[in-house]
Design brief:
The structure holds three protein chains of three kinds. By secondary structure, chain A is α+β, with helices and mostly antiparallel strands. Chain A has a four-stranded antiparallel β-sheet with strand order 1-2-7-8. A two-stranded antiparallel sheet of chain A has the order 3-4. Chain A has a two-stranded antiparallel ribbon with strand order 5-6. Chain A has 13 helices and eight strands. By secondary structure, chain B is mainly α. Chain B folds into two domains: 105 residues, no CATH class; 179 residues, MetI-like fold. Chain B has a two-stranded antiparallel sheet. The relative contact order of chain B is 0.09. Chain C is rod-shaped. Classes of the chains: A alpha+beta, B mainly alpha, C mainly alpha. Chains in contact: A-B, A-C, B-C. At the A-B interface, helix 7, helix 10, helix 12 and helix 13 of A face helix 1, helix 6, helix 7 and helix 14 of B.
Chain lengths: 379, 286, 55
């Protein structure tokens, strides 16, 4: 039996819901955004547990000298000798032939049969510290003897699958830290401009205008070219986050400033004031929640751009460098015509990059629509 | 006429103000870049010697560095060098010597700037010509599939930035088309001075960079145009115009499209940033 | 090749070549400023409300 009061209760729910409940219900209705969120949590999972998911370290100590620039290995159930229920890969070799000017790939044979290497799940191999704390040697998958390369290997024989997993971590964290730094800067500068006003405001505005006229890429170039060549990879990494933050604060600072200026004059603030709310209550109950959602949305929308910046810079050799692994560093190996023709699987990091940017954008748009009280859901 | 004179005066004042701001901006930009490079560890003299002798085992002495520095005039204080450069730029439009290639900056960037500018401008015109009409058309349609396609394109425009689309095109070319795509002008024109034949040849090669350059802008503007146009279509003045018997493209262009296009027009400046973004895939066309 | 303007800029930065870097950027910024000005003029043509009030 349908409950005759259901419609009414729903309506009442709507009118009594808190801002966050409304936000959540609007967000859930947007399937694409939810999909973006789901894919992103997958990426975050990869970033957190890269060591567990990756079978190898992706560094020189785990290189496979017998399989340089090897194509991705298929997970098989069958080969020329028949089938089996457990998945396996074939043991392969790949080496550069100077005469043919290309890589020669062939399956290794034993007693006239191709060698099968059964996949093992929760395989024990190289040691690492999970989340930087828990020592472990457990990997999601691996093989007992030989090596497994699901995405193939690069020209040094390093496992591309592992490298992409670690690169995902680097690219996501660098984007996150970059956003965080620009957020702190812009909150401070925009906040000061918005609250103090007057000549401080106009000076800050003149400066942000100036910075905004210069295209961001030359600014990146100038700043990253300043890194000394002898810096360690950690130093370059943190300097990169700083650069990403330094170049990108003006837009956000301006938004925060205009939001502060505008929302002080909003009718709902006036309404709250007339209803007898004191300043503290207005700030915490009315300004901050709207402001917080606005800021979060702004940050999520900016996220793909930071990832993009890092990738683009690293591709030209201005950002991170080997042996650090990031999507840009991996794609740098992709930029020769030879690589494109002979080793198309070097493209795989590009797919990760595109999917990540896409899902961030979907999520960001969904969050923005959900945060806008005038969109979506019917009353 | 008094009012006309007043308008004129206001116009000149406005123009003068803008010129002043422009001059100040250029001054600040050049100073900032000069200063940023000054802050870098090591100067050009060190880099040149390092490049010259790297791998030869020769140790570079301080006297040598000082010699090169004095030769290039790099031993003078920062402000003197910047002042001199600025003075030459302002009086003779001379950007001074380009150290690395031993020619003047004017000679170094003159041609390249022209080509890049033509290309970026071309890509911009191209993307506006597509994005604005298509955006208007999609916004006035009732059914939803076109909306979906435009949204998808706009997402891809962000997810496939110019270096990514360049990589994808290179890949496609390598496996499907197999064209000579290594340069913007054919082999026989390289290093040749500017001529009409060279320019025509350049246009023949330009479609791929146009695509690489214009793709993101098109995708973004298409989405913007659609959204703005949708907003405008819902407004009362459009209904009023329709009630007066206006319809179709004439009505759209006369009323809502004029307003919808404004945010796009106001950001034209930003669409020129590929002038320097392009280097980001140096081996490709953009 | 087209990328060369940008690549020159990149090389200029890497080489600490102040003249070239500042020269290229002054040119590019000039174009952007001119385009912004053009945009304002176009806006004034399209919308009678924005006449001569600056931004």
């Amino acid at each position: 039996m349908a409950n005759p009061f259901k419609r009414k209760t729903r309506k009442e729910d709507y009118y009594t819901a808190s801002q966050w409940q409304l936000f959540w219900s609007r967000f859930k209705a947007n399937r694409l955004a939810a999909l973006g969120g789901a894919v992103l949590s997958l990426f975050i999972g990869i970033a957190l547990f890269a060591e567990f998911i990756a079978p190898y370290s992706g560094l020189a100590d785990d290189r496979n000298p017998d399989y340089t620039a090897g194509p991705p290995q298929l997970i098989r159930f069958c080969d020329s000798e028949g089938c089996q229920l457990w998945p396996f890969v074939q043991q392969m070799t790949s080496s550069y032939s100077v005469i043919e000017k290309q890589y020669q790939v062939e399956a290794l044979m034993e007693n006239g049969k191709p060698i099968r290497r059964n996949l093992q799940f929760f395989h024990r191999a190289g040691e690492y510290k999970l989340l930087g704390v828990i020592p472990s040697d457990l990997h999601l998958f691996g093989v007992e003897r030989g090596k497994v390369h699901l995405f193939g290997t690069d020209s040094n024989g390093l496992d591309l699958f592992s490298r992409v997993m670690f690169a995902t971590r680097t690219s996501l964290t660098i984007g996150f830290l970059g956003i965080l730094i620009s957020f702190i800067l812009s909150l401070f500068i925009g906040g000061v401009a918005g609250y103090v006003g007057g000549w401080v405001d106009s000076t800050i505005q003149a400066f942000t205008d100036l910075v905004r006229v210069i295209p961001p890429i030359p600014l990146y170039m100038a700043l990253t070219a300043m890194f000394p060549r002898d810096w360690t990879n950690q130093q370059v990494y943190f300097a990169m986050t700083l650069v990403l933050g330094l170049v990108n604060w003006p837009t956000l600072a301006r938004r925060i400033r205009s939001y502060l200026l505008a929302s002080r004059e909003e009718e709902y603030v006036l309404a709250a004031r007339l209803a007898g709310a004191n300043g503290w209550r207005i700030v915490t109950r009315h300004l901050l929640p709207g402001f917080a959602s606005y800021i979060i949305v702004e940050l999520v929308i900016n996220f793909p751009y930071r990832i993009l910046d890092e990738t683009a810079l690293s591709i030209v050799g201005l950002g991170l460098r080997r042996p650090t692994m990031s999507w840009g560093v991996l794609l740098q190996e992709m930029t020769t015509v030879q690589a494109i023709q002979l080793t198309p699987w070097f493209f795989i990091p590009l797919i990760f990059f595109v999917v990540a940017v896409l899902s961030f954008t979907l999520l960001g748009d969904g969050l923005r629509d959900a945060a806008d009280p005038y969109s979506g859901i019917q009353r | 006429m008094a009012s006309n004179a007043a308008t004129n005066e206001a116009f000149w004042r406005f123009l003068l103000g803008r010129l002043l701001i422009a001059a100040l901006t250029l001054l600040a930009v050049s100073f900032m870049i000069y200063g940023l490079i000054e802050l870098m560890p090591g100067d050009y003299a060190e880099r040149e010697l390092f490049r010259k002798y790297s791998g030869t085992g020769v140790t570079i002495t301080q006297t040598e560095i000082d010699q090169v520095r004095a030769q290039l005039g790099l031993d003078r204080p920062f402000l003197v060098r910047y002042g001199e450069w600025l003075w030459h730029v302002m009086t003779r439009f001379d950007f001074g010597p380009a150290f690395r290639v031993e020619t003047s900056v004017n000679a170094l960037i003159g041609d390249k700037f022209l080509y890049t500018f033509v290309l970026v401008l071309g890509a911009m015109v191209f993307s506006y010509l597509i994005a604005i009409p298509v955006g208007i058309w999609v916004a006035t349609r009732k059914s939803g599939w076109a909306d979906g396609v435009v949204t998808l394109i706009s997402y891809l425009g962000l997810a496939l930035p110019n270096f990514a689309i360049a990589l994808v095109l290179l890949m496609l070319n390598a496996f499907v088309f197999n064209l000579d795509v290594t340069g913007l002008v054919s082999q026989e024109f390289r290093g040749q001075p500017f001529s009409l034949a060279k320019f025509l040849d350049f246009l023949g090669h330009a479609y791929i960079p146009l695509l690489v350059l214009g793709w993101s802008t098109t995708a973004f503007q298409l989405q913007t145009m659609r959204g703005l146009m949708k907003d405008e279509m819902g407004k009362l003045y459009v209904t009023a115009a329709q009630a007066r018997g206006l319809s179709g493209w004439p009505m759209l262009i006369k009323y809502p499209a004029r307003h919808a296009v404004m945010p796009i027009v106001s950001t034209i400046g930003f669409d020129f940033s590929p002038l320097t973004n392009c280097p980001l895939s140096p081996r490709f066309w953009c | 090749m087209l990328g060369e303007l940008g690549q020159e800029l990149l090389l200029a930065f890497l080489d600490a070549d102040q003249n070239t870097a500042a020269g290229i950027l002054v040119c590019v910024t000039t174009v952007i400023i001119a385009a912004n000005f053009l945009a304002d003029v176009l806006m004034a043509v399209l919308d009678p409300r924005v006449r001569l009030k600056g931004r």
